[in-house]
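Bug #77: duplicate submission created two jobs. Keeping one. Sequence:
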Amino acid sequence: MEYNDLIAQIDQWHAEEDHQRIVDTIEAMPERDYTLTSLLARAYNNLAKPGDVAYSANLERALELLCSVEQEGREDALWYYRAGYAFYYLDREEMALPYFERAAELDPEDPDAPYLAAECRKWIARRQEENHPKGEDQQPADSANAFHVTLNLNARFQPQHRHDLEDALGEAMDRLCLGVVVGGGTLLFPSGEVRNCDIELYLRHSDPQAIQRLAELVDSMGIAKGSRLLYKNAAGEMEERPVGTLEGMAVYLTGTQLPPEVYEECDINTAIAELGECLEGLGELYSWWEGPKDTALYFYGQSFEAMTSAAKDFLETYPLCQKCRVEQIA
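Kept job's structure:
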């Protein structure tokens, strides 16, 4: 079958909702280009039916396919939409939101992307409301001395990674009877890259010992240098307590400046795994960011110098890491 005839046939099967036939046909092909890979991902998305035992597996397969052609899809609204769709129906609304927003930017005429972006925001807000209900119940109910503290994180955490820290911190504070975590937020650079984060909490007591215990707890959990506890003293004036013990290393991998065959033959997951081995005992990957031209990997450890030294040989030899830049971020 000629290529154009094949595309026409796939479009007809799609209109007839015969998505399994699309999957069977394209999966059987020894090679497939960007268009066929994208259409295959679309078919897997459409095969995902709630209650089906393969529901999540189909969506995960769609994401796997889309990731395999990420470089080609950087300016394609449908690539972002289909990735956002898979994340959304996997109940990962915070992951889906930036994809729908980018799809809407690339195709302002598409009504679906902004609608699903709004749905993501709605679900994110609802989940935050359920986890951290507004009002006086956010404060420890058994203490009239409870007061508000902001943990300003000098860390480039995506919202889902900030939430992981919120959960861990909240559990530890509850265990130590220190107080509660009530939410958080993320500040972005104009590029869309995360700049820093805040975690909002209430302590049960406003005495210096409570601040000291909180600072020790936060430091024990491993956060970046340059972070701060912000709170008002008895006179109503803002004070801050420096916290954080880790230094940060950001590795920016270019997504546009290398030969096409490098992106075809190399896998960013391989780079992540290899860097993890290089930095074993020295640092860990805490978060990442996918921008329009670069992908940033954020590692935190005791020494920026030690991490850069350990990663140097791999960054200089792995093709996907050529022309990367390394910056200290904490």
